[in-house]
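Practice problem 4.
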């Protein structure tokens, strides 16, 4: 998982999670209020209520999503379905048009698909934020003013020297239903984790995500701290002493926090400190822009540092890359992610689930590699390649058909049938000159963006997807830009699909532009590149519209430079007929590889079995193979295995005749 996304929300809770937790905790809040709030002087309760606010964000007015049926909103609690706002936290007044909440509460609004954060009082009045006056990322607080503060503005009195083991009260204003108070003890102080620069207050009063940013009060109702975090492993919570907020410099936003960063190709996390500051006051929009600029710059810096560390060992460089560079090209239409294992070797991960069928021979397979969802979409036969590649709505509508998008409403899961048009649509070219279509879709109801990197392939699409909380799409895109260089996938489809696919020249990877296919159904198949030429006629194998061509792309050294190019060519009679032709590229093993590589290379160079032109039966097929390129006493660096497979039982002379016919029309110019 991309750790930066967790850090920004402090306890790892998204705004939607905060909202749900606030709902679940509401009954408990009220029970606690009736039992313990009376121990406070009743005279201070109205003042606490008047000085405590709910932090809210306006619900989106428009929903771009389409559903399989009308949403059963009647299943939602009355308060939730009728409220025009989402509740994201708590804030309180400290006087002179100054208000305080948790930094991570305000950050929910940065890049959000909801309205900007605002305050709502117990009467339902909503107040817009005017200026951000103070901010600290590390201490997790923000001080701000309102455009038009309440006419009966109240402020909490302050106590900067609270006593340990005294009774305290955690205050929250969840979903505009009134001030909710729960009691406990101020148990201890504990240094902050990074450098011990200050001490957190720890207290036993119950607190839930809806309490974030709310006041912590002493027995007299005086303000002693701001509620910020729950303890991970015990029933103690954290507050920042109010004295630290009051002493913090005015008109300054300070960012000085260790922010872990992880990139999915590595198994380690990088821990550096984001340290920056900028001048205040600023409007929320300008504050958001300044904040985002610095976080995005930090993201870019961390990626650069990660890729620069041990750059000589970063795939495809270094000994750890040898196995992939010398292995046969992977023949899978489902994408794999190349990652570095704990041993330092690079390996391909990513496993697909079962196929989920679509109409007209289409299907979707899905899987996961680290924090990425991977798809292979085999498009329906009645969907033209140009229509699919040129209209992003088509892609997501096909994925939506198999039920990957669901919206929970009460006890029901409602299928989302379309995400509509993407908010952005661009192209990213990776290190191997593959052209990825980058689209971002909005899902406003949960403040999430769906980020997809899609690679057009002959039979449809290969897609890498992430769900990014509002304000985190830059992080996801930056990560995924890097990950595209580490995606391994074969290109396959029927001959009819290949013809359709190759018409879309602007989307073809550069290596595929050098592949010339000359197909005349029922008469001739010809494949030509600068490395390999071959052709055959129907007497060797069927040549039909639904014959399959699979090109396995490998990573290999080409005269001192690692390239991504065709390493395995498979031609099948069709999806139901196992007859096939297979021509595979092999590379002489490097000295650091194990004996399995060297044994296989010895068989190839000396045309030992199974490369001895002798037919054998395997799983109901007859197979025969030989090698092409320099053999015998030569010392080649590259060889091709050439094989023919036929269903059923065939005599040696018939199989040898097929192999000889293929070899007569094959030329290798790769060394």
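Answer key:
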């Amino acid at each position: 998982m991309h750790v930066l996304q967790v850090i920004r929300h402090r306890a790892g809770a998204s705004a939607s999670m905060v909202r749900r937790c606030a709902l679940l905790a509401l009954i408990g809040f009220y029970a606690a209020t009736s039992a313990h709030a009376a121990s406070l002087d009743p005279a201070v309760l109205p003042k606490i209520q008047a000085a405590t606010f709910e932090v809210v964000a306006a619900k989106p007015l428009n929903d771009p999503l389409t559903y399989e049926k009308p949403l059963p909103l009647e299943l939602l609690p009355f308060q939730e379905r009728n409220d025009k706002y989402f509740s994201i936290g708590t804030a309180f007044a400290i006087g002179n048009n100054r208000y305080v909440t948790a930094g991570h509460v305000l950050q929910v609004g940065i890049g959000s698909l909801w309205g900007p954060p605002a305050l709502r009082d117990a009467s339902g009045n909503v107040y817009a934020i005017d200026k951000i006056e103070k901010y600290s990322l590390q201490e997790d607080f923000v001080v701000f003013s309102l455009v038009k503060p309440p006419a009966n503005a109240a402020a909490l009195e302050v106590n900067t020297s609270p006593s340990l083991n005294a009774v305290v009260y955690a205050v929250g204003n969840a979903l505009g239903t009134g001030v909710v108070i729960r009691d406990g003890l101020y148990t201890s102080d504990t240094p902050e984790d990074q450098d011990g620069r200050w001490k957190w207050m720890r207290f036993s009063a119950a607190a839930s995500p809806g309490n974030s940013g709310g006041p912590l009060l002493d027995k007299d109702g005086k303000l002693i701290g701001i509620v910020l975090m729950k303890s991970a492993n015990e029933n103690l919570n954290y507050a920042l002493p109010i004295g630290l907020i009051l002493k913090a410099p005015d008109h300054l936003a300070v960012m000085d926090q260790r922010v872990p960063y992880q990139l999915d190709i590595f198994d380690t996390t990088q821990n550096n400190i984001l340290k920056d500051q900028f001048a205040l006051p600023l409007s929320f929009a300008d504050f958001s822009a300044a904040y985002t600029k610095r976080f995005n710059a930090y993201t870019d810096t961390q990626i650069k540092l990660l890729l620069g560390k041990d750059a000589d060992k970063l795939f495809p460089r270094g000994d750890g890359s040898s196995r992939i560079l010398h292995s046969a090209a992977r023949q899978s239409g489902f994408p794999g992610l190349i990652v570095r294992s704990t041993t330092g070797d690079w390996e391909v991960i990513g496993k697909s689930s079962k196929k989920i069928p679509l109409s007209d021979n289409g299907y979707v397979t899905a899987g996961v590699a680290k924090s990425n969802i991977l798809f292979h979409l085999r498009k329906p036969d009645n969907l033209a390649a140009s229509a699919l590649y040129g209209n992003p709505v088509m892609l997501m509508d096909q994925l939506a058909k198999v039920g990957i998008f669901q919206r929970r409403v009460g006890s029901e899961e409602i299928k989302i049938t379309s995400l509509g048009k993407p908010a952005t649509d661009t192209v990213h070219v990776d290190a191997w000159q593959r052209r990825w279509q980058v689209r971002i879709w909005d899902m406003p109801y949960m403040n999430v963006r769906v980020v997809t990197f899609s690679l057009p392939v002959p039979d449809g699409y290969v897609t890498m997807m992430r769900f990014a909380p509002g304000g985190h799409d830059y992080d996801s895109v930056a990560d995924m830009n890097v990950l595209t260089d580490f995606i391994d996938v074969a290109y396959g489809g029927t001959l009819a699909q290949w013809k359709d696919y190759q018409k879309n020249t602007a989307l073809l990877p550069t290596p595929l532009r050098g592949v010339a296919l000359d197909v005349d159904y029922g008469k001739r198949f010809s494949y030509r590149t600068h490395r390999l030429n071959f052709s055959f006629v129907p007497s060797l194998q069927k040549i039909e519209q639904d014959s399959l061509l699979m090109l396995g792309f490998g990573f290999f050294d080409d005269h001192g430079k690692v390239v991504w190019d065709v390493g395995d060519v498979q031609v099948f009679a069709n999806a139901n007929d196992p007859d096939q032709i297979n021509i595979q590229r092999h590379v002489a093993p490097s000295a650091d590889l194990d004996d399995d590589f060297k044994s296989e290379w010895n068989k190839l160079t000396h045309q030992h079995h199974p490369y001895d032109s002798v037919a054998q039966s395997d799983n109901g097929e007859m197979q025969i193979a030989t090698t092409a390129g320099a053999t015998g006493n030569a010392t080649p660096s590259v060889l091709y295995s050439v094989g023919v497979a036929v269903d059923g039982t065939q005599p040696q002379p018939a199989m040898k005749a097929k192999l000889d016919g293929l070899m007569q029309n094959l030329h290798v110019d790769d060394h």
